Fold:
Amino acid sequence: MPSTPLRVRRAAATAVILTAAGALTPTGAVTAAPAAGPSAVRSAPLVPGLYQSAYSERNDVLWATASVGQPPAATTRSSLVRLDPDTLEVLASYDAPLDAADGTVEAVYGIDVDDERNTVWVTNTRHDSIAVYSQRTGRHLATVPGVPHAREVVVDERRDLVWTTAYGSGSVVAFDTRTHREVRRVTVEGSGPTGLAVDERTGTVHAADFTHDRVITVTPRSSTPRFTPTGDGPLSVALSADGRTAYTADQGAGTVSVLDLRTRTVTRSVPTGEGAKSVAADRRSDRVLVVNRLAGTVSVVAPGAGNVTETIATEALPNHVHLRGDGTAYVLDKSASGPGGEDGVTRIAPAGAPR
Structure:
């Protein structure tokens, strides 16, 4: 049983999953921030209630989720936001629908894109469901129930699957992206799956188990999951290009753990900063980016060397990092630091990229 401080940290982290504040109002001017180290850094206020983002290569746009209203209060508004990935300008905002059963907003949190079908998938965490929207029009296409406290969603385009973590039931669940029907569910009793990563080469799924400090691995051919221990309070997981190494952002420890998935061991633990919350791996290089929520920074980690090569300051309370194929990172924050109380985005381009 975890000690009292750990229980407190974990309870707080669960609340953080749904934290949002303010009224949803698009934009402000983009500002260029001085680069910390070799990276080129730009930032811009967007809207209140930002949570996660995902890049569409097909449409060359960045999608973000925004939901305003912190539990136990009701969500007052929630939207999908369409952004220009280079200028950081808000191009469009699409309101989430109301739940027909109770009239509450079907608030969006986790996100991934399916460029093959030109759709966006999101988690409706407070409604225990996931949903799909059109990338072309922003129209809500369907809501799929049965995912208690849906936390993260990842599309496997190769297999026409969308996977999600159900924190409330200790499950990882797969749906067919064509029919929206559930095709697989693996439940680990007592677990708390949060972050999620899919190896599209093999179809293997890896989920960070926040409750038991481990990664849950589910393969296509086995109904028995494998477990790899990791650091204290893993919230997010990412994979190396070859799928043999996983990285977890360990909120309790303020570290990124490097895991050998073949031997199921931690090979390195790299201190990054207080409240490590989200991690992304650049599959073209030996770079791993970690968002440190309470420290207000992003750490660039060289996992092979086991050290931080660069620390980049963001606005307060950075929440999520997403990497597109060329190595450009997008960090959403919950700072409310914009002129109208908006949260913002920080764009981090790798060394040599234009500012």
